[in-house]
Amino acid sequence: MTTAPRTFRIAAIPADGVGKEVVAAGRTVLDALAAESGGAFAFEWEEFPWGCAYYERTGRMMDEDGLNRLKDFDAIYFGAVGWPTVPDHISLWGLRLKICQSFDQWANVRPVHFLPGVVSPLRKADDTELDWVVVRENSEGEYAGLGGRNLGGRGPGGEVAVQSALFTEVGCERIMRFAFDLARTRGRRKVSSVTKSNAQQYGMVLWDDVFKRVAADYPDVETESVLVDAMSAKFVLRPEDLSVVVASNLNADILSDLGSALAGSLGLAASANLNPERRFPSMFEPVHGSAPDIAGQGLANPIGAVGSAALMLEHFGLPDQAARLNKAIEATTAAGILTRDVGGTAATEDVTKALIDALTI
Ligand code: GGG
């Protein structure tokens, strides 16, 4: 008896700038992987033309019924949002954050992974392998969208704006349990919690309290609580001491960019915005933005997008296929087929072709 191939329905949203190039590259690599699988699985794609150009035509970053159209897909494969003609807070809130928050993708997983053949300021002479994961609380914190401008009516030159952060016990607890469960799957069972709770005396003190309470349920996992300034220094000076780093929305966003830059380039960094309960689709995207300075020139690094596709395959329950993609990435960088951001001369399509060739090795 032959079984029908499992078909995964994926919504592709390339959005802006290099997002278009890296999503196209990722789709090509994923389709090649499916073709290689001998019919074991397949992908069915639908592409949505949303983003800043769409906003300029329609006044919206996505269709009015966009969330409804996305909700039944198995996953969303996203590129990057932002373009100089649209204010960044409008494009970000109108698309990426709207999807993350509406679909309760409360866990943003951002591995910091060092690849062979990529020069990193952190690689030691003995070529120590480094890798850690930043777990970003992705639903509240500094991204709660609470506040307002022109409060108190102080008039021209006297404007006042308030931006509040929201921390809930439920939100803190679920992201911490996620981080602890993840730590249990790794060689080093350790969770580092990051705040600025010496200065942010309400929400981040709640975060610290919840962290202590949750940690008591995981006696086999080492813990530390570190202020974000000290953690930035630790990323640079003692990265071998890290395994899982859990932080609020803003702190984790900044730390994960630092981590990817230390690993060689933002262009290499993958991420997953997960709705762990699977009530809504999760979204997979490279950490980098739309890079208007190189957009449309075929220079973008597709590895962050392809690494994000590997995270999507893990989410689909295909860990062997995810491992194949990750091995192809390592074979490609080890062979020196690198885009400009990591010191090479290869174009996006050269790296894409090398990744596909490496799938068959
Ligand atoms: N692919 C990630 C992306 O498009 N990022 C754009 C951005 O500005 N993100 C800021 C944020 O989400 O905090």
From TrEMBL:
Enzyme Commission (EC) number: 1.1.1.83
Keyword DNA repair tagged: no
Alphabetized SMART domains for the sequence: Iso_dh
Isopropylmalate dehydrogenase-like domain span: 9-355
A Pfam family: Iso_dh
Catalytic activity from the UniProt record: (R)-malate + NAD(+) = pyruvate + CO2 + NADH
PROSITE patterns documented for this protein: IDH_IMDH
GO molecular function, one term: tartrate dehydrogenase activity
Keyword terms of this UniProt record: Manganese, Metal-binding, NAD, Oxidoreductase
Cofactors that this protein relies on: Mg(2+); Mn(2+)
Listed name of the protein: D-malate dehydrogenase (decarboxylating)
Organism of derivation: Streptomyces koelreuteriae
Taxonomy of the source species: Bacteria, Bacillati, Actinomycetota, Actinomycetes, Kitasatosporales
